[in-house]
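FAQ
Q: What does a multi-component entry look like?
A: The components come first, one per line:
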Amino acid sequence: MGSRSTELLQSSRVETLDGYLRLQAEGAPDAPALADGDERFTYGRLEESANRLARLLQDAGCRPGDRICLLVSKSAGAIVAMQAALKAGCAYVPIDIASPAPRVERILTAAEPRMLLTAQPATKLVDDLLERGALGSQLAIGSVDADPVEGKHFRSAFTTSEADAFAGEALPSPGTSPDDPAHILFTSGSTGVPKGVVITHANVTNFVNWAVTYFGIEPSDRVSGHPPLHFDLSTFDIYGTFAAGAELHIVPSALNLLPHKLAAFIEDRELTQWFSVPSILAYLAKFDVVEQGAFPHLKRLLWCGEVMPTPALMYFMARLPHVRFTNLYGPTEATIASSYYTVPERPASESDPIPIGIPCTGEELLVLNEQLEEVPRGEIGDLYIGGVGLSPGYWRDEEKTRAAFMEGPRTSGEPRRIYRTGDLAHMGEDELVYFHGRADSQIKSRGYRIELGEIEVALNALDSLREAAVVAVDTDSFEGATICCAYAPLSGREVRQDEVADRLREVLPTYMIPSRWMAFDALPKNVNGKIDRAGLKTTFAEAGSSERE
Amino acid sequence: MIPHADDVTQRLRWLALTGALVLSLVVAMGTLSSPEPIEEEVTAQVRELVQLVLNAHIGSDDTDIVETGLLDSLALVELLVGIEREFNVQVELESLDLDNLRSVRSIAQMVFDTKHGQGPGAVTAAGETDGA
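Then the predicted structure of the entire assembly, as C-alpha cells:
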C-alpha cells in the first residue's frame, strides 16, 4: 500500500499530460503499459518511442503551440503520436477517420495544423482531402506506423522507422504550462460547422487525479480503451491508466458489432475496469451475452456520455454482483466528467432514474433559472458547471465562447466562471443531481453528440428538396435517440429516401444519418407557419410503435 | 397523416413475402437441377435487403460495409431480422465473424451456407478475435 500511495502522490504532481508516462517509465520501465492486438508495450518502450517521435517532429519544424492533427484510429501508434506531440510542446487534434472529407476539411481549416499524422486506414480520406485542396502544400504528412502511407496523391514524408534514428531519452521541457492547450476536440455544431473545444493539461490532470484516487486504480489494473480518440472520454482511459501505472487494452472497434466476441474479449483480457458509452453495454444486454458471475476480474464498470437505460443497468448488476457500477456525467467543455454516482444497489424498478450524482473534486454543478439564480430543490432548471474542468473556450471563436461560458452567481464575493451545458436537471432532496434531457436540439445517439441543426443544414443544401426537418424520437431500443427525417421534394420530383441518405453521407458521418424517413408533399406547419417539429415527433413516434413487433 | 410512410419495417414485410415466394421457387428448382444458380438469386436478394437496411446504394457486391462504417450495431440487428424473415433461416450472431458481414457477397455466402446446413460456425475457428 505504501508504494502505491507514494505513486499517487507523485502522479498528482504531474502538471502536463506527457508527465504520467515519463513518471512510470522512470519508476517501472518494464511494467506493462499498453496492449494493442498482439502488440505489447512496456512503459519504458512507450516512453522511448514517444521521445524519438517527438524529436523527429521538432526536427520537422513543429514548435510549441503548434497543432498536430491525428487522422488515426485508436492504436498504439496513435497514443505514441499524442505523447510525442505533447513532448514537443504541441497540441493534438484527433479527427474521426470515418468522417467524410468535407467535414474533416472544415476541422483542418479551423485547426491550421503544422503537421498531419496518419496511418493506412485513412489513406482514402487523405486523398479525398488533397483532391479538395484541403491540405495546404506546406502541410507535412507523417505515418504513425513503421510503414509509409501511400495514396494516389501523396506519400508520407516519414514513418516511425525514421524516428528510430533519434535519441530515446527524455526531452528537455518545451516550457508547456498546465494551462496551455493539450488537445482540441471538435464536436457537432448547430450551424453545420464543428466547434473546437480547447482542453488544457490542467483540465485533464485534475479529473484524472481525482478519478485514480476515487476509483483506486492500481498498477495491477487492466483497463479497457473503448471510446474513439475524438471522444473526450478516451482521454480518461489513456491518461487514467498511465497515471496509475496500469495497463491499457485497446478494444478493437470491430468488436462493437459482435457482442459475444466483445464479452469474450473482456473475459480473455481479464479486464478489471470497463469504461464506455452506455449503448455498447445495452447492446451486450440485448443479446444476453453476460453469464451469471462472468468477468471475475472486473472490479468496476463505468459509463459516461448519455443515459444508461435502467433495465440494462439492472441486467449487469444482477449478473456481476462483484462489480462496482458508476455513472459519470459531463460535457466535453467541462472535460471528461464533472459528476459521478456510484449505484449503491440494483434499482428496484426499470423506471427508476439513475442520478448524475455529485460533483467530482474541484467541480461544481448548479441548477439555475434564466436569471442565473439557483432554483429551489426539486425544481427543474438549466444545468451549469463550474470549476477545474472548464475549457478556456471554443477554438478561435469568441462569440460562441461568450454564449456558453459566463460569469455565474458569486459565492463569498469571488466571481466564478460557469458553463451552460444545455442540459436540464434538478437537485434532489438527497443532494444528488438528476438529469432531465436537453433544453435545445442537441441529442445523443450511440454516445455521439449530435446537433440536429447540423443535419438540417446539410439537408437544406440539397437541390432536390423543397424543405426538410430532423427530429429525434426516443426509442426503447439500445441505441438511444433515433434520428428521423421528414422531407418534401421539389414539386413534380420524386426523391427516394436512400438517395437523400446517400447525398448526406457525402458530407456527414454515418452516425448522423437519419434512420427513419417520411416523404411529404409539404411538411406540416404550426399556426406560426413554422415546420411543426413537435407534431412530426409524434407522427414518427406513433409510426414507430405501431410497426414494432 | 402519413402520406408516404416508407419505413424499413414495412418494406421488410413486403420483401419477406416476395422473398419467401421467390426463395421457395428457387429452392424447388435447386433440388431439381444444380445448386449453382441459387447463389445468384440469394445474392440479388441480399443486395436488396442490405441496401434497404443501410438506406444506401451499394456500388458493388464487394463494397466493404464494415470498414466504411455503414454497418453499425443497429443496422446489423435489422439485417439479421431481415435475413430471418426473407430466407427463413436463423443466423446466430454468436457464430458470426466480421468477415461474414463485410460485403453483400460474404453475407450472401453466409445465408447460402446456413440455408444448406453449413453455417458460418464452421468458418469461425480460424477467425477468432485476437482476444486470446
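Q: Is there any commentary attached?
A: Sometimes. For this entry: The longest strand of chain A covers residues 417-427.
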